[in-house]
Amino acid sequence: MTDPRPSEPSADAGQPKAVVTRRRALIMGAISASAVVSIKPALAQTAGSVLNCEIPVPDNNIMGGHIAPDGTVVSADTPGAFPAAGRNFTGEEVRQAMNGRTLPGTSYDQSQAYVNYIRRLQAGQSGFTCYASLQMPR
User: Are residues 58 and 124 in the same domain?
Assistant: First the structure.
């Protein structure tokens, strides 16, 4: 069935094609600019949350395990192994440790073992998403 109302002319009706194209380009530019303004704060918030996320050493599922210098989880009676950290490390602490600093409250060798453990994290382990986020370029 047809609409009994007369159709309304569009805003572009009777305009030269160049004017219509320019107008549409300006509208698309305005839409793009508002999208950038909306996305930038979200990215900043994500970057902040990456630095505040936490990585347990070792994973909560294997608490009680000790960390060998190569980052593997071993039994408590393994010579040279370090006990569990006793606290979670933030993404910022891990990022700094991966750049040469030591993790808070650890010796150099203990920190290296913990960082090696963190580098070995795989999907499904606690802290993996945080560690993976640290690897993303900013």
Answer: yes
